[in-house]
Amino acid sequence: MLNYFILIWLSAVLLSLELSHVAGTQVPRVRGVPISKTSLYDPERDFECLDGSRRVPFNRINDDYCDCGDGSDEPGTAACPNGHFYCENAGFEGLFIPSSRVNDGICDCCDASDEYASSAKCFNNCHELGREARAEAEQAAELAREGNQIRLEMCVEGKRLRGERTSNLAKLKADYLEAEMIKKEKEMVKNQVEERERLALENYKPVEAGETVPKSSQQPRELEAGEYFKILDSDDSGTVTLAEIQARVIFDKDDNGLVTQEEAMYFLAKRDELNLDEFREKAWPNIKPFLLKEENILPPASEFLGGEHAEIQHRGGEDHEDHEDHEDHEDHEEHREHEEHDEHEEHEEHEEHEEENPEEVEIEKEQEPEVKYDDETQALVEEANEARNQYQQAEKNIMDIQNEIRELEGKVERDYGPDEVFASLDGQCYKHTDLEYVYSMCIYGRATQSAKSGGSEVYLGHWSQWTGIGPKKYTEMKFEKGHTCWNGPARTATVQLRCGKENKLISVSEPNRCEYAMIFTTPALCDPNAEANNRHDEL
Ligand code: MAN
């Protein structure tokens, strides 16, 4: 009896499996529905609209009348405005198209299934398209493989660079300490020599305001007064008179072109005339600072008082200073207008200009050594100069090392991506030229734009950070704080990075004013494990 029941139960199970198998193969495919959704269209039951809004008898599916609000009862006709038709496209990729395109006379599906009842002559070319897509995918995979090889080399180089930069940094820090010590030594030497120099130069301190003459030249100074006296005493009368002073335009203190009696009296210490001794004692203290003030150095008497003409010419030059300045200005203007002058002409012009402008000549004269030191002092001054130079050099050396340290620290702390893959690109610049501009993008550096027609370079910004989202962090980088846009914000550039065998800036556009979008290919992104390269995996 038990055996009988077991037999019946077993037969029932086998029958249901058979039935479901039959049902699995026999349920007709509903036109426009992908296999994954076939179970929702069961001919044994009423159809429930996929949005759940209503139920309709199964025979209303694809009857060319729209029953469901979501168009799900008419996937294979154009009856519903919002329905979707699925092309199987065997051999290529399945595709949903709006069901309104079914039988509209245009071939949308490569298997021609959307034009099943139209006069359009559609051919099934899915296999051909599939072949092309597979070849493309193969090429992309090949690219990814080759790119990946280069990427791995970049990682090796990146790690080497990190090691090198880290050890250079340690070395530089040691150099810095040594340079600091050298600087201290040089400073000590400098201070000692400068002290000796200072003492030696005490002897050369000016005895009168503005005067810098060595003590050892006291005698010549006395002689100078006598020399000037002789020249001023033009009638050899043994005295210098007010009239003789007034005859020298050099004594025109207020530059009005005339030496007044008052001016002459100032120089002659309110006397009408002075003999040599009086001149030395009373007049020379007024005359000498005046000559010094005018020339900063005491000119030999013969040069300025040697002859009326020499003197007058010199003063005349000064009198016309404004006028010459004006001409000079015009010269410069003209020069700017004629920039095409060749170098030779410019040189000549410069020389002429120097001759015409006594002020410049005098500035050069001022730079000439004014004081002649004795040999011992001169040697000390030279020794002190050398010590100062060496100290400055030591200071400069420290600054250079500090700059190098700063630069290296920046690199050691920088985000070079996974396995230091971008490290070798630091500082590398890439160019892209379009119809109007030449763009340059330096990784971790600057981005610029130069108009082909000329003009100055426009700064698009400095590298700021990686801006890709999540695992795609290293697929986008940003340059910020470029030149300000006319009446707008500072320029910025966003660079999208893609896998490519070459590091190459392949395109630049300006989707919004002063916001630049660049595409850069690089082997650094040819990582088979990275999500970014999975585009063709679906095929
Ligand atoms: C320049 C260029 C352009 C930019 C305009 C904005 O011509 O930098 O790219 O759009 O300035 O004024």
UniProtKB/TrEMBL annotation:
Domain of life: Eukaryota
Amino acid composition bias (Acidic residues), ranges on this chain: 321-331, 342-363
Annotated coiled-coil segments of the chain: 377-411
Span list, region Disordered: 312-372
PROSITE patterns, per database record: EF_HAND_1 (PS00018), EF_HAND_2 (PS50222), LDLRA_2 (PS50068), MRH (PS51914)
A Gene Ontology biological process term: N-glycan processing
Matching SUPFAM superfamilies: EF-hand, LDL receptor-like module, Mannose 6-phosphate receptor domain
InterPro entries named in the record: EF-hand-dom_pair (IPR011992), EF_Hand_1_Ca_BS (IPR018247), EF_hand_dom (IPR002048), Gtb1-like (IPR039794), LDL_receptor-like_sf (IPR036055), LDrepeatLR_classA_rpt (IPR002172), Man6P_isomerase_rcpt-bd_dom_sf (IPR009011), MRH_dom (IPR044865)
Domain EF-hand: 220-255
Residue span, MRH domain: 427-528
CDD domains assigned: LDLa (cd00112)
Signal peptide per UniProt: 1-24
A GO CC annotation given for this chain: glucosidase II complex
Protein name: Glucosidase 2 subunit beta
Originating organism: Fopius arisanus
Lineage of producing organism: Eukaryota, Metazoa, Ecdysozoa, Arthropoda, Hexapoda
Gene designation: GCS2beta
